[in-house]
Amino acid sequence: QVQLVELGGGSVRPGGSLKLSCVGAGSLFKFNSMSWYRQPSGKQRELVATTGHNGRRNYADSVKGRFTISIDYGNDAIKLQMDRLKPDDTAVYYCSMSGSETFWGQGTQVTVSS
């Protein structure tokens, strides 16, 4: 049974870093696409980064060069390393994995504020 859980959210000052993890998927080979989304308060959910087993990685323009998505096969997890964080990065961050079905986590709050 797939129950995605996001870990690692919190509060950080502008310019700081956070690393998010998404666990609970079991074997990642059930999925062909693994992604992170975010939803700022009062706004629509948006795609942040996506990856697959072929090593491809795609990022939203707003996070290119600052965020890195990766797959941790040893722990059946996907990660999102977030560096040089800005106040505009404040949002609830969700992981999502798609194969024959699409699964979502419950989200984790990331707040960037001085």
Residue share in helices?
A: under 10%
Give the overall pLDDT as a whole number.
96
Shape: globular
The poorly predicted ranges are none
The gyration radius over C-alpha positions equals: 13 Å
Secondary structure tally: strands: 11
How much of the residues is beta strand, in percent? Answer: over 45%
Q: How far from one another are the termini?
A: 40 Å
Number of helical segments with 4 or more residues: 0
N-to-C series of helices and strands:
EEEEEEEEEEE
Structural class: mainly beta
Instruction: Please state the oligomeric state of the protein chains shown.
Output: single chain
Largest sheet, described in full? 7 strands, mixed
